[in-house]
Amino acid sequence: MIDPKKTYEERMSAAFNCSVVNGRLYNLHSSADAVLSTVFTKIHSGQVPIGIQQILTDVPDDLFGKIGVKRATNVDVKKEVGGHLGYKDGCLEFFYKIPSAY
Question: Which strand (E) or helix (H) includes residue 76?
């Protein structure tokens, strides 16, 4: 869980933890995801799930690993998937947005 409401230092810490991902880190998000927008926020009060908005936008892009953080490539898939249960059926519609996706 990467909470965009946290401080810059806390977001940088999350970006550091994401650096274990080999290659690019993609965040596919849909603001129409009612499950994450309602159910998740009721269970985890005060936190924002990563699947409904962009994440780590203020983290520097560190492609060569000099500072040891990972910036997410945010992909809005609202049009292709709609809500939470649409990812499976909509994946062929958004895979083209992700280089080397298969």
Answer: strand 72-76
Cα separation, 73 vs 102, whole angstroms: 17
Q: Global pTM?
A: 0.69
Q: Which of 83, 79, 82, 84 is nearest to 96 (CA)?
A: 79
Q: State both tokens at 52.
A: 């409904």
Separation between Cα atoms, residue 71 and residue 91, nearest integer Å = 23
Q: For residue 75, what are its two tokens? A: 């992909």
Cα 80 to chain centroid distance, Å, stands at 16
Q: pLDDT by residue (tens digit) across 9-43? A: 776 676 666 666 666 778 888 888 888 888 887 88
